[in-house]
Amino acid sequence: MAAVNPASAAPADLLLINGKVVTLDAASSVKEALAVEAGHIAATGGTDEIRKLAGPSTKIVDLGGRTVIPGLIDSHIHAIRAGFRFATEVNWEGAASIPEALDRLRSAAAREKPDAWLIVAGGWTPRQFAEDRRPTEAEIATVASGHPVYIQLFYGYVLINAEGRERLNIKSEDDLPEGAKFEQDFEHRPTGWIVGKGPSIVALYSRLPKPTIEEAIEGTRQFLRELTSYGLTGVIDPGGHNLAPEDYAALFQVWRRHELPLRVVYSIFAPRPGKELEDFQAFTQFLPNGMGDDWLRFNGIGECVTWGMYNNDAPTDADKEAFYRVARWAAERGLRLTQHWNNDRSVHHLLDVLERVNREVPLAPLRWSIAHLHDASDESLQRMRALGVGWLMQDGLYFAAPSYIAERGTRMQRSPPIVSARKLGIVVGGGTDANRVMVENPFVSLRWMLDGLTVDGIASREKAEIPSREEALRIYTEGSAWFAHDENRRGRLVPGMLADLAVLSDDYFTVPVSHIAKIKSLLTVVGGQIVYAVGPFSDLDTTHR
Question: Tell me, what DSSP letter sits at residue 425?
């Protein structure tokens, strides 16, 4: 047993016995049992030895041979925004056909008030449907009569039905945001869908009514609880579009009530173009990096640091200078920074500025990161390594559009270059980028990391860039923890670490790779507290702090 003498140790609060405990320690040890005391791992070892740590009030859980892993940490997920809207939106995750998706709308219509909005904000793709197409406005009308409907596909398409267009006073294309237009079929008839680039779609979504504070609080509770059902014990949230500073009130309220079921680390997304430095200075005046507690903590700025460098493959010198000013200010303050960047062909603009800042203030101690960058080249990865900048990698390509595959050609075979990045010594964090562009299930992401297959079965990554199961798990645990300065506190099940863990429905290490996406957590523990329990563990107390 590691680092603990049972004869001299205090009685444990919780024992998990008769299982397969994947510690992810330096030796990749697998144990039978573990003990939790005061929110931390007290010991791991054989069942008989760990039983000796029990006292009169110790809770003992027999795992029945089930696998225990360190709690998963999504290093890039828009959980706060998803929670804010979750109680008032419809989820199409996992729907295998258009009739199944329509049934979910029909069920929502039946339980909502007659004139309530039905909103599908993302997290789906036509390629998941047997029909391999988007639903039509006529199909939506069969299940949602009388309700305004808004359905968003990534950041390029929106369907708003007749009731919704009337509610938003959209009578012609002149009433749409700049750059958006009505889609037409081959016979020049409107399809009911609106097409446009990201800013146009964001502007359309912003016209929807916001939930009440009560709905936002309930949605936050529901969504975060759903995350714990997947074995997630922590998230790192980069803010995002359609999430105003006042919208964080629901999250803060849940935190103040001691009702967070997992750890939330968040950063500030620049709210106003052209006012980024001014706003960051105002928002962080009394908010140093790391402010908070083990359940809710501030972690710097991004994913939009400046609007001129956000989703811009051709930034001007002025755009880069504005970014430099904010980045230099953040570095001097010791703030973490994460930057959204999609394409390797243009990331040199970002890396040039980061190298300029690094010559004045060393970046390596700050744990800065680049998110996405699915097609990162070896040259870009080497520049990141030299800076000490980490890489936030998500499974957005699981929903990869044919256009992405067609554009990259053979380059797609190393997108993303997971193995290459790790060989170079770059810290990689696992994530989903949920819930607009991807589903929040981390086991979908883990499966995709291990086989490279898209939702409709297209092979999109060569074998050389497929990590081992242990490597993928480490990316989603200790790798993600690094970006919150927590790699010495979570991500492994060893004595002294926080007791964040999940008991799985199936053994991640032995089931077929294709089955990994179906794994769920049966028991999730955060800081020694049981926050989620179902099936054989459903009688266990899940009271929050």
Answer: T
